[in-house]
Specification:
The chain has helices at about 45-55, 80-100, 105-110, 125-195, 200-215, 220-235, 245-265, 265-285, and strands at about 5-15, 20-25, 30-40, 60-70, 75-80, 115-120. The chain is an alpha+beta fold. The strands form two sheets. The protein has a four-stranded mixed β-sheet. It has a two-stranded antiparallel ribbon with strand order 5-6. The radius of gyration is 35 Å and the shape is elongated. This is YicC family protein. Keywords: Endonuclease, Hydrolase, Nuclease. InterPro entries: YicC-like_C, YicC-like_N, YicC/YloC-like.
């Protein structure tokens, strides 16, 4: 089954006074990129979080937010009295020099950098394990979302490939008629400009065979069918991340379609080639979203 790179996952758990929230949104991207926003307490575990996301989600452009909120009671804090005293002296001196009011000085001091700091800047191992569980739950929800999107992508891609195979059969039906048209056209031109009685039949047959070989598209059609079958085989592979491989096969399919069109020299075949190209472009757009 295919998986899309597009998805969303959310998980939230409350333990006592602490609420852990993880939200992950993913869009398509050539590689793995993550924009990570998280609580300062999780900084020591940033590498672990990024590693976890890359291992589980593999590819895509991610926006991940992981928050730890305190409900009611908060973590103990430390007030740096010495720093507050230094700030107070400096502010008082400046206010005196500038004749500024000095009311509500405590409120001002408490908001200055490093005056009030958490008592502990580190998260306990047990707390991190709880956070990890929440992240994995959000990843699991996203993975399910990706699988649902992938099922729709697979259905559409199979339709496009089946249409290309159908149009290939239409071209194969027209190919013998095309050769007869080429032979008739050349014979008519030679009779008109050279005269039928002046044409060397053996030489003409040799030239005609050489000309038709240059226009032969049988090998292109065989390779085109083989590439389409290989595309379907890849869809059935167990590996979840196969978007790049599918993209490469579509490039090969496009190469055979283009060569068929350039060698066709027939309006009827060209119409089917145009329809193949239309299906191919739709398939390419869808593959851009495949994991």
């Amino acid at each position: 089954m295919l998986k899309s790179m597009t998805g969303f996952g959310r998980a939230e758990v409350t333990r006592g006074e602490t609420t852990i929230l993880a939200e992950i949104k993913s869009l398509n991207g050539k590689q793995f990129e993550v924009n990570l926003k998280m609580s300062p307490l999780l900084k020591p575990y940033e590498f672990d979080i990024r590693n976890l996301l890359q291992q589980e989600l593999q590819r895509g452009t991610l926006d991940a937010t992981i928050n730890i909120k305190q409900n009611g009671a908060t973590r103990p804090v430390v007030i740096n009295t010495e720093l507050a005293r230094y700030y107070h002296q400096a502010i008082t001196s400046m206010a005196t020099d500038l004749s500024l009011p000095q009311e509500d000085m405590l409120n001002v001091l408490m908001k200055l950098p490093e005056v009030v700091t958490p008592a502990s800047e580190q998260m306990e191992k047990s707390e991190w394990l709880e956070v990890e569980k929440v992240i994995r739950a959000a990843v699991a929800e996203m993975d399910a979302h990706r699988a649902d999107e992938g099922a729709m992508l697979e259905k559409d891609l199979l339709l496009r490939i089946d249409n290309i195979l159908l149009y290939t059969e239409k071209v194969k039906e027209l190919d013998p008629l095309r050769k007869d048209k080429v032979r008739t056209r050349l014979e008519t031109l030679l009779a008109e400009y050279v005269g039928k009685e002046n044409v060397d039949a053996n030489r003409m047959e040799q030239e005609l065979i050489f000309y038709l070989e240059k226009l032969d598209i049988s090998e292109e059609l065989i390779r085109l069918q083989n590439h389409c079958r290989y595309f379907k085989d890849i869809l059935n592979e167990a590996d979840a991340a196969k978007g790049k491989k599918l993209g490469f096969v579509l490039q090969e399919i496009g190469r055979e379609i283009n060569t068929t069109g350039s060698k066709a020299n027939d309006a009827g075949i060209q119409q089917w080639v145009v329809m193949m190209k239309d299906e191919l472009e739709k398939a390419k757009e869808q593959v851009l979203n495949v994991l």
